[in-house]
């Protein structure tokens, strides 16, 4: 099939002219100047609707991000696989901005044989549909070797994330956090906290993403099976458990990690009697998750970039594409550590729980909690 974008270029240009009020000649002239993506006109999207959008050196430093995506060897769950990383990192770097900022992400496709797009999940893209990362709908895939300037306004404070929206690239690991803080000035968050942590939750298989994709589109449909591992910030353990000694089967090995492995858990280090914000994002492809913090209640304060009337929960479900902020008060005994556990919801427990620790400084991180981690409800 030919590229939809190419066939509809004329229609798109008329549409952009309507929205932006530019003449067709201006647009075509600009396309020639900025054309870096071969399929149609998407480079027009680079802030074209805002006149006088020239940035100083300082603004570029604060608001522009360079990202190159590529396949690389990585061991997200202690087994070496190929992941899709950004700038040599997996997951991709966190992008942080203030509400009202225009940000620019120069994304270079370093994959050799595939197009790529990035969707900025939860960002409304008012006036910038070409930056939405919806491949072949409002935006053409970026070809290998090409760069696209995703320039858009982050208009609301909140917890967001970005991920690949081409094929099953998000299952291959193309994702990262996008955090929007309140704007400078009188603006304040409607709640207080002393520190925060990002938690990107994802599902991971040992088969390739092509295996997953072919199965999903086959007739009859072929299910890839339960995820092999659940990852917290790109880290999990597939052949051992941090809590193996609570297991009633002898087949689960206790993990013996030094802490510097790619699959070693990221421990959340906290101080007693403080309030922490956990920014949780569900970047899963197929799994529904449930998260709990041992011994601590959570107060939900934000969902998908919207403040909510705070309410308390023991555990929280996170479906693909959802994001939440919860507050926890570290008011439990500080000489202990507590499990942070994430399980697959509503399925037979074939995927081991993802685990990490809430560690009270200066308690040693080697101190294992005395009780077993919370199990996700069926
Ligand atoms: Cu998305």
UniProtKB/TrEMBL annotation:
<dbReference type="InterPro" id="IPR045087">
    <property type="entry name" value="Cu-oxidase_fam"/>
</dbReference>
<keyword id="KW-0479">Metal-binding</keyword>
<keyword id="KW-0560">Oxidoreductase</keyword>
<dbReference type="Pfam" id="PF07732">
    <property type="entry name" value="Cu-oxidase_3"/>
</dbReference>
<dbReference type="InterPro" id="IPR008972">
    <property type="entry name" value="Cupredoxin"/>
</dbReference>
<dbReference type="GO" id="GO:0009506">
    <property type="term" value="C:plasmodesma"/>
</dbReference>
<feature type="domain" description="Plastocyanin-like">
    <location>
        <begin position="198"/>
        <end position="358"/>
    </location>
</feature>
<feature type="domain" description="Plastocyanin-like">
    <location>
        <begin position="71"/>
        <end position="181"/>
    </location>
</feature>
<dbReference type="GO" id="GO:0005507">
    <property type="term" value="F:copper ion binding"/>
</dbReference>
<dbReference type="InterPro" id="IPR034259">
    <property type="entry name" value="CuRO_1_AAO"/>
</dbReference>
<keyword id="KW-0186">Copper</keyword>
<protein>
    <recommendedName>
        <fullName>L-ascorbate oxidase</fullName>
    </recommendedName>
</protein>
<dbReference type="Pfam" id="PF00394">
    <property type="entry name" value="Cu-oxidase"/>
</dbReference>
<comment type="similarity">
    <text>Belongs to the multicopper oxidase family.</text>
</comment>
<dbReference type="InterPro" id="IPR011707">
    <property type="entry name" value="Cu-oxidase-like_N"/>
</dbReference>
<dbReference type="GO" id="GO:0016491">
    <property type="term" value="F:oxidoreductase activity"/>
</dbReference>
<dbReference type="InterPro" id="IPR001117">
    <property type="entry name" value="Cu-oxidase_2nd"/>
</dbReference>
């Amino acid at each position: 099939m030919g590229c939809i974008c190419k066939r509809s270029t004329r229609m798109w240009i008329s549409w952009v002219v309507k929205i932006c009020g530019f003449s067709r000649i201006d647009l075509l002239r600009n396309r020639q100047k900025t054309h870096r993506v071969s399929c149609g006109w998407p480079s027009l999207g680079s802030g074209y609707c805002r006149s006088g959008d020239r940035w100083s050196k300082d603004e570029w430093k604060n608001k522009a991000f360079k990202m190159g995506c590529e396949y690389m060897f990585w061991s997200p769950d202690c087994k070496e696989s190929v992941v899709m990383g950004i700038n040599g990192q997996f997951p991709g770097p966190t992008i942080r901005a203030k509400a009202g900022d225009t940000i620019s992400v120069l994304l270079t496709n370093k994959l050799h044989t595939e197009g790529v797009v990035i969707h900025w999940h939860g960002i409304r893209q008012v006036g910038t549909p070409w930056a939405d990362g919806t491949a072949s709908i409002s935006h053409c895939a970026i070809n290998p070797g090409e760069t696209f300037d995703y320039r858009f306004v982050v208009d609301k404070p909140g917890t967001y994330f970005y991920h690949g929206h081409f094929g099953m690239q998000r299952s291959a690991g193309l994702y990262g956090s996008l955090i929007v803080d309140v704007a400078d000035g009188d603006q304040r968050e409607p709640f207080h906290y002393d520190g925060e942590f990002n938690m990107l939750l994802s599902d991971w298989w040992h088969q390739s993403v092509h295996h997953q994709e072919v199965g999903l589109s086959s007739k009859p449909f072929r299910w890839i099976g339960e995820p092999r591992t659940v990852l917290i910030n790109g880290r999990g353990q597939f052949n051992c458990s941090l809590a193996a000694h609570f297991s009633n089967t002898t087949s689960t090995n206790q993990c013996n990690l030094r802490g510097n492995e790619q699959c070693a858990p990221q421990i959340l280090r906290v101080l007693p009697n403080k309030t922490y914000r956990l920014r949780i994002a569900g970047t899963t492809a197929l799994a529904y998750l449930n998260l709990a913090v041992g011994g601590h209640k959570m107060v939900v304060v934000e969902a998908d970039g919207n403040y909510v009337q705070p309410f308390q929960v023991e555990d929280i479900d996170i479906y693909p594409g959802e994001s939440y902020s919860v507050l926890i008060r570290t008011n439990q005994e500080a000489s202990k550590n507590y499990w942070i556990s994430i399980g697959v919801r509503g399925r037979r427990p074939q995927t081991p729980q993802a685990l990490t620790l809430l560690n009270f400084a200066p308690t040693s991180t080697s101190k294992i909690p005395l009780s077993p981690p919370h199990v996700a409800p069926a």
